[in-house]
Amino acid sequence: MSRRAETAPLRRAAPRGATRARRTWQRSCTIVAAAAATLVAAAGCAADGPRTVSPAASAPARSAAQPSASGPRQVTVLGAGDVLVHPPVWQQARSDGHGRMDFRDILAGVRPDVSAADLAICHLETPLAGPGDAPRGWPRFAAPPQVVTAIRDTGFDDCSTASNHSYDQGTAGVADTLAALDAAHLHHAGTARSAREAGRTDLIDVHGVRIADLSYTFGLNTGLSLPAGQSWLVDITDVHRILTAAHAARRAGADIVLLSLHWGVEYQQQPTEEQRAQARTLLASPDVDAILGCHAHVVQPFQRIGGKWVVYGMGNEIARHEDPIAASREGVMPRLTFTESPGGRWRVTHLDAVPTWVDIAPKIRLVTLSAALAGHPSAARRAVYQREYRRIGAAVNSLGARVPLA
């Protein structure tokens, strides 16, 4: 399928009581000795096509990715793990909203880091319930559509949507999900409502820097398959197809091409051989700049391959599994700083990781562990936060990457 490219400007509605300011990244890179010339990659693999997003008239634009008086342009990209809305999560949202579902307080703990990035990408793992439909949990999810408002107000700009749950609610679920994302002025990649939509390459204009986010999944939920002739509904992983899409995005003008891959084995903290092989092949392409992985529900390592980065698994951003083991409450938000090099190519000059944790009592709340530790928690809670901070750091660097934690 041939692809057409469209560029949509990055704008978003302001979160409650918040103003947006772009963080200037001046920390020196401590990842590897030669990191100044490092290429990094972030999320992606799926939606082939650019959409024109109509930004909210009141949405304040972030500061442009401009060069300093003596330096090149920079842009920061932040990834995040699975947004997996189990029944206890939406019950908490209903309580917070006094009868109306409001997820903003649940996600508020990560807002400062998310909103500071020039481009923040979430992974919306499940479809959304249609208007008037009741939400559903495992095994075939339909998340309350109100979560999209919170995703936007937390500071996310874009959601990857290709996952094994993408088709849980059939063709209607795909359409309902994308309609809700469009209404919230959020970019999306990984699923489509038509062959025409799937054939477009969505170039997100981040203040003049064109970024493509491609999203793919290894497959669908047990017992589900796409209708004959409608494979465009969900982008299923095929390495050759991904490389073709990445090349098309580059030819269409993408400065940075990110892959969001839903892959691996659930609750396994080391990548499979298949993940490693796919990462090597994909990152060997000049058309792929980074990979952001999801699906395992636990944090998996970061690895530098040929000067580029793969994040094998970002864990859960928000979830409340029936048996909430510690590892499934852990998450990590990689922050990638891309710098324009001579010749116009963009390379990562800094990568760090923001460890997150889902508190489940007394209320379900997503926190960044560094901020939680700085907030004078009780001795017992401090011990938990310190333990989780160390565990996440060990997982991130278990393949020897030496990525600093925020």
From TrEMBL:
Residues 7-18, 54-74 have a biased composition (Low complexity). Residues 1-22, 49-74 are annotated as: Disordered. It holds the Pfam family PGA_cap. Residues 76-321 form the Capsule synthesis protein CapA domain. SUPFAM superfamilies: Metallo-dependent phosphatases. It comes from the Bacteria. Belongs to the CapA family. This is Poly-gamma-glutamate biosynthesis protein. The gene is pgsA_3.
